[in-house]
């Protein structure tokens, strides 16, 4: 695309966004518009489409690892950093809002699920997060403690208990993602959860839920009666 054509295309894209808003653009157009802010002398449509092909969605792009983003032709270190910052801002603001909510309430639980989908639901590798709560069921700490397939060789119960005591938590929520999209808990998921519930009870910390997330959905141990508490 010649320079004048490219500039004209970018102008029309900006005007389309201003007239129709985010929902009026295709995903590749939204991503293309973002890319034009950092890539000045190159057609960004092809780059945007390649990113979406690799990472499936805009959320997948902005939450992907920087090194993976840079593998896409036309994406350099500055562009990958720019996209990563946008992703971190979105997740950071979502987390900030979630911290003020009672996570045992319906609204609080819904907002938490949305945050978790944005945070780890779209990741390609499996991660295990523990959310530590105070006596008012509000977040005091949110920590990714383990990475990799979730089983006894990866998840160390002692570390979870130590962090719970250190943060003076009264409740915890386990979260991990299933990159495959299959949200059914494995036998190891269930065994580990029940073992950790018994262990945490001994130090007066309640396991409120274990949530498995993907980009689009979730599975709650509590909602499916795999965890019960009174």
Write the layout of secondary structure elements.
Elements lengths: L2 H18 L6 H9 L9 H11 L2 H5 L3 H4 L7 H22 L7 H16 L5 E7 L5 E9 L9 H10 L4 E7 L9 H15 L4 E8 L4 E3 L10
Parallel strand pairs: 3-4
Antiparallel strand pairs: 1-2, 1-3, 4-5
Helix pairs in contact: 2-3, 6-7
Fold and architecture overview:
The protein has 230 residues and is α+β, with helices and mostly antiparallel strands. It has two domains: 3-91, DNA polymerase, domain 1; 108-220, Cytidine Deaminase, domain 2 (3-Layer(aba) Sandwich), CATH 3.40.140. It has nine helices and five strands, in the order αααααααββαβαββ. It has a five-stranded mixed β-sheet with strand order 2-1-3-4-5. Helix 9 links the parallel strand 3 (171-177) and strand 4 (206-213). Helix 2 (27-35) packs across helix 3 (45-55) and helix 6 runs antiparallel to helix 7. It is elongated, with a radius of gyration of 21 Å. The model has no long low-confidence stretch (mean pLDDT 87).
Q: What's the helix-strand series?
A: HHHHHHHEEHEHEE
Low-confidence stretches: none
Determine the CATH superfamily of the largest domain: Cytidine Deaminase, domain 2
Helix content: 40-55%
- Beginning-to-end CA distance, first to last residue: 65 Å
Q: Might you state the CATH topology name of the largest domain? A: Cytidine Deaminase, domain 2
What composes the largest sheet? 5 strands, mixed
| Class per helix and strand makeup | alpha+beta
Quick description:
With 230 residues, this protein is an alpha+beta fold. It is built from nine helices and five strands. Strand 1 and strand 2 (139-147) form a beta hairpin.
């Amino acid at each position: 695309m010649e320079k004048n054509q490219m500039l004209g295309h970018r102008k029309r894209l900006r005007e389309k966004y201003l007239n129709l808003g985010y929902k009026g653009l295709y995903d590749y157009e939204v991503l293309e518009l973002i890319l034009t802010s950092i890539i000045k002398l190159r057609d960004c449509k092809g780059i945007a489409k390649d990113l979406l092909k690799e990472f499936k969605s805009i959320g997948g792009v902005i939450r992907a690892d920087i090194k993976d983003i840079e593998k896409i032709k036309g994406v350099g270190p500055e562009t990958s950093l720019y996209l990563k910052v946008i992703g971190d801002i979105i997740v950071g603001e979502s987390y900030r809002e979630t911290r003020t909510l009672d996570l045992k309430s319906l609204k609080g639980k819904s907002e938490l699920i949305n945050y978790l989908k944005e945070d780890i639901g779209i990741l390609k590798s499996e991660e295990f997060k523990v959310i530590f709560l105070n006596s008012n069921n509000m977040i005091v700490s949110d920590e990714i403690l383990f990475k990799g397939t979730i089983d006894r060789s990866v998840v160390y119960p002692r570390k979870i208990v130590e962090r719970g005591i250190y943060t003076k938590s009264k409740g915890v929520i386990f979260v991990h993602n299933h990159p495959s999209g299959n949200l059914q808990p494995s036998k190891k998921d269930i065994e580990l959860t029940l073992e950790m519930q018994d262990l945490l009870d001994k130090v007066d910390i309640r396991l409120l839920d274990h949530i498995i997330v993907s980009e689009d959905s979730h599975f709650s141990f509590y909602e499916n009666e795999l965890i019960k508490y009174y």
